[in-house]
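Hi,

I'm pasting everything inline rather than attaching a file, because the server keeps stripping attachments. The sequence lines come first, and each chain or strand is labelled.
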Amino acid sequence: MRTRILRVFALVVKELLALLRDPASRAVLIGPPIIQLIVFGYAATFELKHVPFVVYNQDQGQLSRELVARFAGAPSFDLVQFVYDQSAVKKAINNKSALMAMDIGPNFTSDLERGQPAHVQIVLDGRDSNTAAIAMGYVQSIVTHFNESQVLQHGTKPPPTVLLDRALFNPNLDSRWFIVPGICGILTLLVSMLTTGLSVAREREMGTFDQLLVTPMPPTEILLGKALPGFLVGTAEGTLIVLMAIFWFHVPFTGSLIGLYIGLLCFLFAAVGIGLMISSLAVTQQQGLLGVFLFMVPAIVLSGFATPIANMPQAVQYITLLDPLRYFLIVLRGSFLEGGGIALFWPQYWPLLMIGLICMVAAGNLFRKRLA
Amino acid sequence: MGVIVVNNLSKSFGKGTSRKNALKNVSFEIAEGNMAALIGPDGAGKTTLLRLLAGILQPDAGTLQVLGHALPDDSLQLQARIGYMPQRFGLYENLTVEENLTLFADLHNLSEDGRKARFDELLTMTALGPFRTRRAGQLSGGMKQKLGLACTLIHPPKLLLLDEASVGVDPISRRELWSIIQHQVIHEKVTVLLSTAYMDEAERCDHVLLLHEGEILAQGSPSDLIAPMQGHSFLLKDAALAPRALQSQIARLQDVVDSVIQGDGLRIVMKSAEAPTLPARLVAQGLSKPVPARLEDAFVSLLFNRNPHHSTPLPKTTETAANDIPVVEVKSLYRYFGSFAAVKDVSFSVHKGEIFGLLGANGAGKSTTFRMLCGLMPASSGTLRVAGADLRTGAASARARIGYVSQKFSLYGALSVLQNLSFFATVYGLQSRRKQDRIAWALEELELKNYIATNAADLPLGYKQRLALACALMHEPSILFLDEPTSGVDPLARREFWARVNALAQGGTTCLVTTHFMEEAEYCDRLVLMSLGEVLAEGTPTEIKSRVRRADQPNPSMEDAFISLIEEHERVSRRAS
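And the predicted assembly:
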C-alpha cells in the first residue's frame, strides 16, 4: 500500500513539475486565465452606459429642459447635440452618431402645466434590438421618476398604481456581479480539463507513456496520478479567480466558503473525469486539445452563463442536465450573491458527483481497452 | 571555383542562456561533380548546414555561395536549380507514386511534354515502375526513400543535397539508393552533398566533412583522412580467449584508442603507428596482424584526441558461465495491423545473461516485436513469455523485473536529471535508503554528476542515452530491453554504450537490443535478422555470416549476410508461390 501511495505521489509530483518547470505550459496555466478574467470581467456586461442621443426639442418651456437634463445627467446617456428639424433626427440615427433621439412636442410644458398628459417621442435604432430594448427600459425609468417629481411638486393626483421595484441579491442589477462568478466556473473548467485532457496525449507523443506502462504501476494508479494534478491545479485556479472576483471586481461574497469549496471539488471531480476520458481517447495533443474545445463550447452555452436555461427549448433543457458547469454556476452565484450554504447546494453536488463517477469509470475502461 | 563555397559560417538557435551554436566558423569548398559526405552524430549541425545551403535558413555570420548564387539573397533562384531532400521527405501518403511525381513536377513547372520521359526514366531508375498506382503510404521504408529521391530529381538539378537519405533503410534499398545517387554524379554530372550516419558511405565519397558539435573536425578525401591512421590498426586473435574477454584486457592497455570486436577477433586502433605491446601470454598464444585503417578509425581518434580523458567503462572480467535458462521465449508470434502482417511467425528464445540482437531495417518488425514483448501491445497470435510471464496479462510484479529504454530515449524533458531518476526510482517501488543508493549509483556509474540540475531536454544526446539507461536500471532489472539505443549518437558514445551493455550482460542481466546498424551485430551473443516481419536467420554473428560464405565472398560482413539472406528468402518464397 505504501509503495502504491508513494508511486502515485511520485507521478503527481512529476506531473506538477512538468507543468511548472516548462515555461510554455506554465504560461498557459497562469497567463490566459487572468487575461480572460480581466477581459470578460470588463467587456462582458449587459449594462448600457453612455448611450449617445440627440434631442429635438420643439418646446420652449422649463419642464422640457428639465426632462432633457435628467437624461443628459444620467450615466446611461450622453447628449450628443440638439437638433432643430425632423430630418436631422433621422440623419443622426442613420449614420449612427446617435442611438436614440428624443422628440419633444411644442406644447410639452404647457400641457403639463395644465395637468394634461404631454407627449415625448423616443426614436431608437432598432438595428441592435437588444441594446434598443435595454435603452427603452432606462428611458421608461427616467420618465417615471420625472412624472413622480411632477406629482410631488404640483400636488396633482398621483397615478392609481405605482410600481416600486427592488432587486434582491443584486440591488443595482450590476451585471458584473452575475458574470464574474460565472467566469470563475468557466476558467476552472478550462484549466483542469487542459491539465488532464492533454497529459496522457503529451506523454504518448513524447514516448514516455510506454515508459510508464512497462513499470509495475497498474493503469488505475496511472489514472489516479493523472487525475490528482487536475484537482490541484483546478483548485488553485478556482481560488485565484474567487479572490480576484472579491478583491478586484468587488463582487460581494455572502455565502459559505465551505459550501463553495465542496462544490468546487465536486465540479473538479466531474471536469477531471471528462478530461481523463478525452485523454484516454486522444493519441496526440492536438486531438486532446480539439476534444477539450469540442466539450467546452457547448458546455458554456448550455450552462446558463449568458442566457438563462429556462429560455431554452425543453429538449435542450434536458441536455443541460449533463453539463457540469450548469450545476457549478448555481453554486458559484449562490455563494456570491445568495448567501447560500451546503444545505442549499446539495441538489447541485450530487449530479456533479454522478457525472464525475460515470466519466472516471468510463475513462478507466477506455484506458484499458485502448491498451489492449 | 567550387559549386559550394562556404566561409566562416556560423549559426545559432535560441535566446539568452539557452542559445546554442549549431555551426561555428565552418569553411569548406566542394568542387563541381564531386560527391561529398557530411558525417557526424545527431546534433553535430548536419541538418542546419544543409538547410543553410538550400537557402531555407539565414546564417548569423559568414558567406555562402552555392552554384554561383550568394545566399541568402538569391535563394529563390538557387532553389530552382537544386534538389534538396530533407530527412523526412514530405511525400503525400494518400497520393499514388505517380500522383506524387506529378505534384512535384507541377511545383517545379515541368513542361507537359518533357514530363513523361522524365517519369519513365525515374521510375525505371528507382524500380518503382510496377508500383505507379500504389499509394505512397503503402510503400516500404526503402521504397518511400527512393520515391522521395525521385521527386527531388524531377527537374534535373545541378546540385543534390540529401539529408540522411539512407539512414534506417534496409541494406538492399540502401544499395539501390546509393547506385541512383552515383548514377547522377557520373552520368548527369550532378554535384552531391549528403549527410549520413554510415561511415562506409562516407568512405565512398570524394570529399568528407567530419562534423562534431558544429565544428568541422577534419575534411578531405577519405584517403587523405585515413592516411595518417595507416599502421595504427591491428586485428588480434586469441585462440583461448573469447573476443569480449580479450577486449576487456586489451582496452586497458596504454595507447589503445579504440577496440571493437570483429568476428572472432578484436580490431584495435593505436595512438601511434606501433604494434601494441601485448601481455606475454598473448604474445605467445595470440595473433596480431596489422589491418588497413578505416575512416571510422580517423573519426574515433580525432574525437579521442579532443577529449583524451574520456573513459570507456570496461566490462568486468568475471565471466559468468553460459546459461541455458531461457528468460525470453517467443513462439510463432504474429501481429496484424488490419490485413497487414507486421510480424509473421517469429520464434526465438533468449538465455540468461545474453546480449540478444534484433537486427533489421526500419519497418522490419523489430519494434513491433519489442513492444509485444514488453506488454505494450497484444500479439495477434502466438505465445511469448518474459521472465516466465506474459507481461501483458501477467502480474505487475513481472514488469518490475524488466527495464525498458525506448527509441529516442523517452525522458521527461522539463524535469532535471535528478528528478527523472527520482521519479523512475519511486515508480519502480524503491524507497528511502535503497532509492538514494541507486540514484547515487546512477550518477556515479553513468557519469551524470555534472548534469544533476540540467533539464533532460537540454542534455547532449549521449547523456540523454545514459540517463535513459540509468532510469531503466534503477530497480536492477534482470532483463533489459533496448530499442534502437545507438541511433544518432557519436561513435565514442556508441562504443561506450555497448561496453556498458557488455558489463551488464556479464553481471547476469539479459539484454535485448534492436538496431539497424548491421555492424553492431558483432556486439551481440546471438541475434535474429528480420526483414518485412519475418526472421531470416538466427544464431551467433559468426554462424550467420558463415551461412553466406562463398568463393566470391570469402569474408562476408553482416550486411553482405543480410543481403544474401534476403535474396535467398525471396527465391524460396517465389518458388513456393
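Chain A has two domains: 2-44+174-371, 51-154.

If the labels don't parse on your end, tell me and I'll reformat.
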